[in-house]
């Protein structure tokens, strides 16, 4: 299992950042926001399932149903590899990238559709974590490089301290069973 649900490169792509100016701030915030996403969605993303992917292949055989667009983690898969399609006749998924070794398990995590919201959550946290903002309340607008977002104080979820629109973009939390 990996602690980070998103990579620096994906965050920068989603936010339209090309310079390295904010890399340290983003990198430091990724595990914090990843943990927040796990709590908000009530899912640890720690499930490991048997799978078969041959070295140099983008075809995965697995005995479980996995959503299309699901980001998969394994040390021998490139970061942000996700399921692209499913072939019902052969019971095989096609992945967005190829394995660098034979693989016998995978760790399914977030959907690629959640990456934009997570990137904006990281941006939101970074914009509030500067020494000059210690005494500021009700921040309504911030910018990092070319990225700028505005949130009214009543748009911030008081339980999670993120804009409600971003929490909504993550999807519905998993229900607790038992």
Description:
- With 178 residues, the protein is an alpha+beta fold.
- It has two domains: 8-44 and 116-170, no CATH class; 49-113.
- The chain is built from four helices and ten strands.
- A hairpin with a 2-residue loop joins strand 7 (141-144) and strand 8 (147-150).
- The longest helix has 19 residues, at 23-41.
Architecture blueprint of SSEs:
Blueprint (H helix, E strand, L loop, with lengths): L7 H8 L7 H19 L7 E5 L5 E4 L7 E4 L7 E7 L4 E4 L7 E9 L3 H14 L12 E4 L2 E4 L5 E2 L4 E2 H7 L8
Antiparallel strand pairs: 1-2, 1-6, 2-5, 3-4, 3-6, 4-5, 7-8, 9-10
Helix pairs in contact: 1-3, 2-3, 3-4
Beta-strand fraction estimate: 25-35%
Helix/strand-derived category reads alpha+beta
> How many domain regions?
2
User: What portion of residues is helical?
Assistant: 25-40%
Oligomer: single chain
What is the number of E strands?
A: 10
Could you give the order of the helices and strands? HHEEEEEEHEEEEH
The major pleated sheet works out as: 6 strands, antiparallel, barrel
Q: Major sheet: order of its strands?
A: 1-2-5-4-3-6
Q: Tell me the number of helical segments per DSSP (H or I, 4 or more residues long).
A: 4
CA distance, first residue to last residue: 24 Å
